[in-house]
Design goal:
This protein has 178 residues and is mostly helical. It has one domain. Helices cover 71% and strands 0% of the residues. Helix 1 packs antiparallel against helix 2 and helix 1 packs antiparallel against helix 5. The two termini are 19 Å apart. It is a multi-pass membrane protein. The complex comprises the extracytoplasmic solute receptor protein and the two transmembrane proteins.
Length: 178
């Protein structure tokens, strides 16, 4: 069970590493646009859209990784008073009953969304921006798959913790050291 959890966690880690590397590309695009606008009086709709696309990809690729590190948004006002085993059981139920169906809907509709964009050769509305809008739209179902992989990696680890064979269900290794 831990082997499968580790495989899913590694996939999420690699996706987060790609997101981390894309930060350099985003920084370069922003700098290029700022320098062009300030010193050469140029402006590019495509570069502006590329910034938004890169930003979206960076955010979406990190969901699964965030879940494996317990770094996702959580409201623990009620559950902080419960015991650790009860909180883990509650987390497992929440993943199964709420996260999974929601992510399945995102995968189904996001895939259809990206496919329709590909079939229609959808591009920028103004014609001056980026073509191939399906690329950014395909990240939506990919991010949902990564979120499920991260969540189920944690579920498997929680089951092992509840059986007494592991202390912490969350990964603690840093992004670039594992």
């Amino acid at each position: 069970m831990l082997r499968l959890a580790h495989i899913m966690e590694r996939i999420c880690t690699y996706a987060a590493r790609v997101a981390g590397l894309l930060l350099f590309a985003l920084t370069a695009v922003i700098l290029y646009e700022i320098i062009g606008r300030q010193f050469y009086n140029t402006n590019s709709v495509a570069l502006g859209e590329l910034q938004w696309h890169l930003h979206g990809i960076i955010a979406l690729l990190g969901f699964g990784y965030a879940y494996t590190r317990d770094a996702h948004v959580r409201i623990d006002l009620v559950s902080q008073n419960f015991s650790q085993p009860f909180r883990m059981k509650l987390e497992i139920l929440g993943i199964i009953l709420f996260l999974t169906p929601f992510m399945i809907l995102i995968i189904q509709h996001g895939s259809d969304f990206a496919y329709r964009s590909y079939i229609r050769s959808e591009g920028s509305n103004g014609g001056l921006g980026l073509d191939h809008r399906f690329i950014i739209k395909s990240i939506i179902p990919i991010s949902a798959i990564l979120a499920l992989m991260g969540a189920y990696s944690v579920v498997l680890r929680m089951i092992v913790v509840l059986r007494g064979n592991l202390k912490d269900p969350y990964e603690s290794k840093e992004l670039w050291k594992s």
